[in-house]
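Predict the 3D structure for this chain.
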Amino acid sequence: MESEDADWLDRVRLLDGVISNPELIWLATEEDKVAFFNRMAASLLPERLPYITVGKPSSGRLHLFPDGLPIGVGSNGRVVFLYLVTGPFDADLRRFLQRHAELLRALPGWTLQLLFLRRTAGMMSAFEHAAREERTGRFSPDTTAELKWYCQERRCTSDLRVRCQSDPLAGPSSVRYAALSDPLSPLADRW
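Done. Predicted structure below.
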């Protein structure tokens, strides 16, 4: 029951964010978002839109715009993404931005509007920093090479931890990536 109450309150808070921006046209459903972005970013293939895979990665169904967050469009075509900050950790925001990275690159203009609760308002600067870092951060060539290896291995085996532990050539850095497989999943799925 407590989770249902929290979900209900989060929906009301998002509605407050929508009402606070009456000048925007709001895209609420997956179908509305897909249709709009197919026109707005026509060069972006539908499978490059934000998604999660439901079911097994090889045979699962893509669920587009899985966050279910409202997206607004201004009269000038600028896209506004609402994001409700509900807790003290920025990992969910980073995953959101990773899922949306290709779409954001394809848009001529966009805004990420972070909505804070009173209990999270003291964390505004930390979340703004995380958003900037996520959008502007660059990997070193060594890190890029390791990530490419990790993503290839992830596609080739269902349990990377077993692969890293059984392969003496895998090296210590790959074990580090195996231990972090959940946070890297959105990145690995798209690489």
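Strands lie at 25-27, 51-54, 61-64, 71-73, 79-85, 110-116.
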